[in-house]
Write a structure and sequence with these properties.
This protein is an alpha+beta fold and 416 residues long. The chain folds into 2 domains: 168 residues, FAD/NAD(P)-binding domain (3-Layer(bba) Sandwich); 132 residues, D-Amino Acid Oxidase, Chain A, domain 2 (2-Layer Sandwich), CATH 3.30.9. The protein has 11 helices and 19 strands. Bound molecules: flavin-adenine dinucleotide. The site of flavin-adenine dinucleotide has 40 residues, from helix 1, strand 17 and helix 10.
Length: 416
């Protein structure tokens, strides 16, 4: 049985950033990351829009607002240090009709409060930035960037290994039980013992817990985000990133256009309830996941609240013309012939039993465990800052147990 101070479950960007931060802070820590797939970043981290968000959308003072700003700065430093390519393309958030103008101005004020570099522009200036957009007013956010988070994750794996950490793949965690003052983790790669377990399992983060311990206070509902991309000859329709004004109640909705680091222009994502937590295709169904959703009261309360929006998203998923019409609000020259399907992603969204979506990042603690229960967008941008928060909590817990049992601290170091 392998012994560690800390076991992290999940080699998505949040687990990797947490491991990276912990080992930078405490190089002597014995740390091991367990990932069920063959490699890192196979789920949300490897299936996202690749946007380095500025932090304009989030409620001032929230984890999202604070950690997005801190995380963006930390991520850009990491990318510079590691020589990873990224681009600050900038983004326009576009108000098409007068009814959106007040919301646009409120969003601009929020951006200023959050310390984002942004300006309000009129139609003429907007057309200089994005000649094909339809908007009358816009917020221009020059600091928004793009990167390939899969590349970032791969480099984090290298850094972790260089610092003495272990990343064990094909290691699906099946059970976590208490054994006196340690947790014993049973996985498909054998058993591990640790003083602390950090759950960064993304789409499965609500399922992991200490056997006999508290259930998660939230349930993960998977929302597939489907994309099209512009055919190469029509990429000139979008130079940077073109977003609609978000609905404050559901800010992650609203398909947009974004020119990625590979110069491809991605259109989407929508947000459709998935019946398989890792279901990247519309027809995917996993009975256990579907049943888990259907027997959760919070799902029915959420469905009642957002029935209209949910139906629209579902319709737009099956009807390409509806998707095209959403894009045409932003860029009228886009047509169905300009779009080809591209791979989807699945978002892990935590929902409370009362049917409310958890808006902010959510971290919960129980004996032997720190759980990252909700880390949706902009968690890839914010990953290094989330990792720092989780890492500080982890070190405080480890130090507290070492102070009570100094011999144990010595023992774990001796076993390295
Ligand atoms: C469509 C889409 C677009 C997005 N766009 C952006 C964007 O532009 N910018 C941005 O900042 N954010 C974006 N996000 C959000 C961002 O991708 C996620 O917030 C982030 O990747 C979450 O990382 P994670 O490590 O928590 O989860 P994941 O990347 O999903 O990693 C979790 C890992 O845990 C592993 N795991 C699960 N269960 C177990 C188990 N039992 N044992 C072992 N391993 C296990 C999984 O295999 C997986 O590798 C987007 C997300 C989606 C889906």
């Amino acid at each position: 049985m392998e012994q560690a101070d800390v076991i992290i479950i999940g080699a998505g960007i949040v687990g990797l950033a947490t491991a990276h931060g912990l080992l930078r802070e405490r190089p002597d820590l014995k740390l091991c990351l367990l990932e069920k797939e063959e490699g890192a970043a196979q789920h949300q981290t490897g299936h996202n829009s690749g946007v380095i968000h500025s932090g304009i959308y989030y409620r001032p003072g929230s984890y999202k607002a604070r950690l997005c700003r801190q995380g963006k700065a930390a991520l850009e430093r990491f990318l510079d240090e590691q020589g990873i390519q990224y681009k600050r393309r900038g983004k326009v958030i576009v108000a098409v009709d007068p009814s959106e103008r007040l919301r646009l101005e409120a969003l601009y004020q929020r951006g200023i409060e959050n310390g984002v570099d942004c300006t309000l522009v009129g139609a003429e200036q907007l057309r200089e930035i994005e000649p094909h957009t339809a908007g009358q007013w816009a917020i221009w956010v020059p600091e928004t960037g793009v990167v390939d988070f899969g590349v970032v994750a791969a480099r984090m794996v290298d850094c972790i290994v260089e610092r003495g950490g272990r990343v064990v793949t094909n290691a699906r965690v099946q059970r976590v039980v208490e054994d006196r003052d340690h947790a014993v983790i049973a996985s498909t790669q054998g058993e591990f013992r640790a003083r602390l377990v950090i759950n960064c399992a993304g789409l499965y983060s609500d399922r992991l817990r200490l056997e006999g311990g508290r259930r998660s206070s939230v349930r993960i509902l998977p929302f597939r985000g489907e994309y099209y991309s512009l055919v190469e000859s029509r990429r000139d329709l979008c130079r940077s990133l073109i977003y609609p004004v978000p609905d404050p109640a559901l800010p992650f909705l609203g398909v947009h256009l974004s020119r990625g680091i590979d110069e491809a222009v991605h259109c989407g994502p929508n947000a459709v309830l998935a019946w398989d937590r890792e279901g990247y295709r519309r027809r995917n169904l996993r009975l256990a996941d579907a049943w888990d959703t259907l027997r959760f009261g919070g799902f029915w309360r959420m469905a009642g609240r957002y029935m209209r929006v949910g139906t629209q998203e579902w319709w737009r998923s099956w009807n390409k013309n509806a998707f095209v019409r959403s894009l045409q609000r932003l860029v009228p020259d886009v047509s169905g012939a300009d779009l080809e399907r591209s791979p989807a992603g699945v978002r892990a969204q935590a929902v409370r039993p009362d049917g409310h979506l958890v808006d902010d990042f959510l971290i919960e603690e129980e004996p032997f465990f720190i759980h990252v229960r909700n880390a949706p967008s902009p968690a890839a941008t914010a990953s290094l800052a989330i990792g720092q928060v989780v890492g500080e909590q982890a070190l405080a817990r480890l130090d507290a147990t070492s102070a009570l049992h100094p011999s144990r601290a010595a023992a774990t170091i001796l076993q390295r």
